[in-house]
Amino acid sequence: MAFKYLPFLAILFLRCVSAAAQGTGTIPEFAKQAQDTVVYNSVEVPPQFPGGVTQFYAYVQNNFKIPMRFKGKRKIITQFVVEKDGKISRINILKGGEEGVGDEVKRLLESSPLWKAGEQNGTPVRVLYSLLIPIENN
After folding, report:
1. Residue 98 lies in a domain
2. Left if phi > 0, otherwise alpha if psi is -120 to 50, otherwise beta: which for 113?
3. pTM here?
4. Phi first, then psi: what are they for 83, rounded to 5°?
């Protein structure tokens, strides 16, 4: 008895699929909003500081203000999101942020020039970026 409705359900399903395929071709607004929240770990074209890594470390050297209470050497590991517009957000200090060093790294990243956004399929996307910043104060 249950199988007598099967042809009707199959036709209904095919009509729904056909109607969806004949749509406008645009992505619904809720799907666009979901895409805007995705943060990629790996992309075809990674984000880049203007001028590359060498220029980034020059920026750090010229702008990092070593906290007075910090002495010695340290490697700070930080992770942040490079947004589609090149801004830096969601800055986390994963290692080495004691003695005010982490606060200074956050300040430095927040005030950095806009980065070139990462790209996936030719489109700018949000990318999680990890970075090691060596600091020395003798």
Report:
1. yes
2. beta
3. 0.73
4. -75, 170
Report how far Cα 2 is from the mean position of its chain's Cα atoms.
Answer: 51
Answer yes or no: is 65 within a domain: yes
Rounded CA separation 32/28 (Å)? 7
* Rounded distance between C-alpha atoms, residue 130 and residue 77, angstroms: 7
DSSP reduced 3-state for 100: coil
pLDDT digits (tens, 9 = 90+) for 39-85: 999 999 999 999 999 999 999 999 999 888 888 899 999 999 999 99
Question: Strand pairing partners for 95?
Answer: 77
| Domain annotation covers residue 87 | yes
* CB proximity list for 99: less than 8 A, separation 6 or greater: 67, 69, 70
Please name which of 86, 85, 91, 101 lies closest in space to residue 135, comparing C-alpha atoms.
Answer: 101
Question: Per the structure, how many domains does the chain have?
Answer: 1
Whole-angstrom distance, CA of residue 62 vs CA of residue 56: 10
